[in-house]
Amino acid sequence: AMALLQQMRSPRISFLQTLASLFLGGVALLSSYWCVGKQKVPKPLCTPTKHTNCIPVPGVSNSSNIQFFWETGDDRFVFPTFHTGLFITCEENVYADEWEEKCRGFYTLTPDSEKAMMWLYLSLELVYISLLLISCTLLSVQLCIRAWFPSTQRWGQLLNAFAAIFTVLGGLLGMVGHMMFMQVFQTSAILGPEDFKPHSYGYSWAFYVAWLAFTVCMSAGVSTLNNYTKRVL
């Protein structure tokens, strides 16, 4: 059991954990699948490129398709899907029969009251990734020192301590950033522009990957710090 614990605390494992959290965090940040859902949009008028799920227009549709428009309730609406990330949001295009998406910057949906918080969460997420990048660099330098210059091990330990601090700090800033994004998204869903009114939505895979990255990140930081205190004290 002690041997296993030693392995868990080894600098190599700390480095691999930090690298994994950097990779997972980067993937989540760049993805536009944090939230997915459906919108509720009135059916568009039929056009030469749109024949299904639309309101017939004399002269445009085939005459056989024209029926009197008595649809009521939800029959008058279509429910296109959308997915949103930290940077962009993409919606299914309701004006074409074949499936296609149109994307726009998430900032275009954010109400003015939330703009400051939006820039703040973006800054926090970027600082989080930068700190993890610095930690990975420090830990890789420490591994090199350990392999090639064992006599200067003390410097390696110092790098280890800084890496641990950067990893934990990065993880905490990332967590605050994720929570701010969730709040901004929920406010945008309620107060956002008329053409973005989610009928229903939930979290998607990138949201869960981001929290997995946070968990791995904190575990890496704690084991790196553990490693340092064990050797120094």
UniProtKB/TrEMBL annotation:
Alphabetized InterPro entries for the sequence: GSG-1, PMP-22/EMP/MP20-like
Pfam family, one: GSG-1
Keyword vocabulary terms for this entry: Membrane, Transmembrane, Transmembrane helix
Keyword Membrane in annotation: yes
GO CC annotations, alphabetized: plasma membrane
Annotated compartments: Membrane
Keyword check for Metal-binding: no
Transmembrane segments: 126-149, 161-185, 205-225
Membrane topology according to the record: Multi-pass membrane protein
Sequence similarity: Belongs to the GSG1 family.
Name of protein: Germ cell associated 1
Natural source organism: Tetraodon nigroviridis
Lineage of producing organism: Eukaryota, Metazoa, Chordata, Craniata, Vertebrata
